[in-house]
Structure prediction request, 709 residues.
Amino acid sequence: MRGCGAHGCQCCGAGHRGAEHVGAGSGGAGHMGARCWGCNTWVRGLGVLGIGVQSTWVQSLGVLAQGCSSGGTRHMGARLGDANRVPLPLHHPGPLLPEAAMEKDPTYYQDAAKAVGGNGLGAEGTEAQLDDFVSTHPDYNEEEEEQKYFRRKRLGVVKNVLAASLAGMLTYGVYLGLLQMQLILHYDETYREVKYSNIELEDIDRKVLMGINITPVAALLYTPILIRFFGTKWAMFLAVGIYALFVSSNYWERYYTLVPSAVAIGVAIVPLWASMGNYITRMAQKYYEYVNYKEEHVQEQQQAPRGACNTYIIIFQTIFYACFHLSFVCAQMPMLFFLNNYLYQLNHTLFGVKHCGTLSHGTLPGFNKTVLQSLPRSVNLIIVESALMAAAFLAMLVVLVLCGSAYRPTEEIDLRSIGWGNIFQLPFKHMRDYRLRHLFPLFIYSGFEVLFVCTGFSLVGPRDRVGGGVTEQGQPGQATLSLCLLQNYGVCTLGLEKLAYLLMAYGFSASACSSLALSMLRLRRHIPLLAGILIHAALLVTLFFWAPEPRHVVQAPLLYTIAVLWGTGSALNKTSISILLGMLYTDKERQDFVFTIYHWWQALAIFTVYLWSGLPMKAKLSIMLLALVVAVGAYLWMEHKLAQHMAYRLPRIPRPRHKMHGYRYLEEDNSDETGSEGDGGSSNDDNDRHPAEATNADELPRDDEDQLG
Prediction:
């Protein structure tokens, strides 16, 4: 009891005025203005609902009593349960108690039972009221509510795609911007001598770039295991966190902070972009499921028909790359708003440069070793690095909070339950598929062109000293500018202070022209890819025969035009490759392997570019042009084979081997397993009847006929 200091009164005839009585346990208690729950009695009265009646009667006027448990209880003007109370005067005499009424009238209980039955308050009436309470609302429209539910699901998928695209843009933009700013600062001799005279900063920077470029060579061995172990979303989150760790290590630039964080970046590069590609493709497949939720194969969680998801794959990959290429714009913010204030003009930095473009050799010989006219204050550097750290932390939060899971929990369990040995082997087995083998040159060229066009500073090549206008070759190991398109053409002509604007032109162009990949919705899939390749081929031939004059700013419009066109070709190439992989490999159990192979070959190409900076420009352009021709020929040959319905080899995905025995695993059929890639949507039971690596011709026609038609 609350309000009177007693709980569950046990005395008979106790009266509580203005009290709230909980669980009264005796008979004959009178509660004046009281509130009573949990009692187990029969209730009789006018306008009274009695529920759970068990022993004695309770009489009241205008009272709702829910199971009071004592005999002869009288509630005057009380509210019991949730009914509206009718207040009575406190001195109202009230009806007779059941015992007294029984003495005067032996048929009292029979009359009471008839009254209750007549009022419809028996068991049948209670059931009818309960049915009315739990039954469907008369205005409820099941189909409309179902449409609203799946509309929310589709909006959630769009949110996931936009969040992943934003996170990728922020992550890569922060990484490129910080690396570019720090290596420009470390290139300046005065900066190194004044701030880091005794720690051999150039040696540290060389090891940093070695860690970033060499470590991904081993990524094929651990990336699939990492993605399957953590899951696609959490592999993305882990990789973005490693990029944030790299940013934080630049607060205190020492060997034991910079080099380990650079090695960690090299470890995370392939897992990040492989999981990103897999995530976007999975979102396209989930969007298809939420649009066609009434289809039988969707309700039974079977694989979609060949080509059913192509429209959404094209749209979502286009959105992703439109955002991703903006990272080249974001990367220039530190240089644009901070570093450009400290740079010398081109007449100073390019004073010893004699040749540009195709006539240059190595890493822009003659470039001045002092590029900073004044040294930035440490406080200002900390502010810039803090802003970059905040952007990296924001990317982590975007992945953590806004990105949903790529698979259902049971699917994640199935993906990792095929055995870690099988997960390790399957990327190598997938390379025996001729479709992937014919795309290897295209993967390699994709790695070549993005590092060739972008700016950066590479600590390789000979040491160049400018003295009296004569370039002397010193010992290797000095920090020198890397060779790339914008360095040997753009910077050599316009100066280092215009580098940010050239890269922004490239980034804006690539972002805008990524939308041209939407033409795959109406054209054949190879047309945008070949268009991008033709643009790059024309530019490579032009660059091969063009040697701009140093410090000749009149050529700026032509250089900006080349940057814009190169961005157009890059956008078409990269977007088309990811779309092509999503079309060819629709099985959710293979996509992480395929995207791992793609980005691993890209990493090998970037490592090759890292090694070749000492070559003449003509040699580099020749290598790129040769790689481009081979890539086009191999791709067209693959399309020809697919048009001829030539069988390809796909490794069988083993059935999951679950060690736990919950209700989910008692079913004989695995509802979350999709069929093999080649059997057009059949279950994995069919795969077990095929050889380990089937090459049956009957699995091919439906595999590619719809895409090429």
In short: The mean pLDDT is 76.
